[in-house]
Design goal:
The protein has 254 residues and is α/β, with parallel strands linked by helices. 43% of the residues lie in helices and 12% in strands. Strands 2, 3, 4, 6, 7 and 8 form a six-stranded parallel sheet that branches. Strands 1-5 form a two-stranded parallel sheet. Helix 2 packs parallel to helix 8 and helix 5 packs parallel to helix 6. The longest helix is centred in the first third of the chain and has 20 residues. The chain is globular and about 45 Å long.
Amino acid sequence: MLCYPDRRSAFRAGAAAAAGALTAACGSGSRTDPAPAEPARAPAIAPAPRRFAGQPDEIGNGPRDRPRVALTFHGNGDPAIARAVLAEAERAGARVTVLAIGSWLDAHPEMARRILDGGHELGNHTQRHLAINTMPEKEAYAEITGCAQRLKRLTGSIGTWFRPSQTRYATPLVRQLAQRAGYPHVLSYDVDSLDFTSPGAAAVIRTVTGTIRSGSVVSLHFGYADTVDAMPPLLEELARRKLRAVTTTELLTP
């Protein structure tokens, strides 16, 4: 241990030692380089659309001979409710398909990653959720491609599916426009939960369980508390019936 006769000497020795250490670390007359910036987080990656051989241009259900169903959600509304729905699905080991509205993604771009990171599927539900079947061709096409562009920017692809807005079935023109935009199939459904009418969780459960069967595609919505409350008992009932909730792509894949 070194001893110094007085505090002044100790201070001088300490300062000299510190200066020597700084010079050794940085080089004489050089400045310390700033720490490298944290790299930007890579975008979430979504699969591209695919064509399913033997399936029509508009798909309303999957094969009836396998115990699988697809729960599909219109992506809109309070993101906290959306996250709650996703959490309930994941707690039960279910995977869902989310058809997002482009303006919703504009307001909540983080939801694209949240959906994909949970193992779910993400698709296109038009840019503004208007009555697409009644639109002129140019405007309808812009609704489809507007959302597609946002999905590609956020996820690297235009999304796995397209579902028309404010309608269960697309017109022949809208199906053609969807194909032009890169979607081989339009996604419809055979079970309508009617959760957007806010009938209460019990009514949502009765509506879905009363009509769902193997191969069903169920229409549900983010943004409604009834849907969150309905999820646990609905998923329990599906498990009791030995029906597995999968993404729409998994539903259609042999």
